[in-house]
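A quick aside before the break. I want you to see a complete sequence-to-structure record at least once, exactly as it would be stored in a machine-readable document. Don't worry about memorizing anything.
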Amino acid sequence: MRKLAPGLLAVSALVASVLASPAAQAAGPTAAQLLAKLTSCQQISNGKYRTDTETAATIPVCGKNGAVWYKADMDIDCDGQPTTKCNKNTDPWFQPDTAFHDSKGKPLVADKLPYVVVPSPSGTWDYRKHGIQGGGVVAVIYNNRVDYAVVGDTGPSNIIGEASYASAVTLGINPNPKNGGTDGPVHYLYFKNSKVSPIEDHGKAVSQGEALAQKFLNEN
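That is the input. The structure line, written in tokens, reads:
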């Protein structure tokens, strides 16, 4: 490991202290504040979802003022543009496409963009009828962390609880599509009628998400 000169050590220490200060931390509501509003479910789905093919259907989709949410697990989605981390060799279920595309018309990049997978429309629930769309903002809450992602892909119509490789990394979850993910609980909080443009701009997802999360707290 290369040693830093004394002057560089001082600069490094200063940067570390700044990053550790409260002012440098993400703005917006804390995980605890958001979870306090998600303690009871007003079910809006016509039925319930499975978290995996072999599990029972126990997960309802719930409604709140200006939002839709559910509590599930997290499976890892590596679909989209092939990369060294997400491809047919690293992911047995890999698909080189996503339901929603970036500003250049290309599939999203799962290991770079935090995105959430919403169940495909069905008689159980149709996200399109509840103010949810591609590029919509989602607060993903796990282990006292909040990550703001976008709606980036659709999945099976009977399974719920999936997010991109990058979303898992941000939340400290094993992102390996073969053996990663978590049983949770992971809370997915969708803000109605929101949209990030361009969809691949994660910075915008975070800034919009923080504002929408505060609005959610104020209205619920």
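Two observations worth writing down. Confidence is low (pLDDT under 50) at residues 1-25. The chain has one domain: 26-219. We'll return to this after the break.
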